[in-house]
Amino acid sequence: MLHLLSLHYTAPEEAAEPFVPGHVAYLERHHKDGTFLVSGQTVPTSIGGVIIAHGVDRSAIEQITAQDPFVVNNVAEYTITTITPGRVHPALSSVLTPSC
């Protein structure tokens, strides 16, 4: 399964600034363990960010997003869209093989 995680600020973007180092560590941890495939800010950045995650079920990704320092400190929230890939580019097929 794939999960599209849309992070939306619930407070002014400036309110998230003190939590950026913790958020970056959170991203790095989940990129390192292979759960997060891609992450980045939206354009404009005032909206939030997007993460593509895989390798865990819906319940696990809900627990993971609840641990983001932005969420813990009430400056952002996630919308989670779970996707069952129908077609995958050959360059991504080895990464996106079903694991849940």
TrEMBL record:
Top-rank taxon, per record: Bacteria
Domain YCII-related: 6-82
Gene3D superfamilies to which the protein is assigned, alphabetical: Dimeric alpha+beta barrel (3.30.70.1060)
PANTHER family, alphabetized: GSR2449 PROTEIN, YCII-RELATED DOMAIN-CONTAINING PROTEIN
Family: Belongs to the YciI family.
Protein name: YciI family protein
Native organism: Streptomyces tibetensis
Phylogenetic lineage: Bacteria, Bacillati, Actinomycetota, Actinomycetes, Kitasatosporales
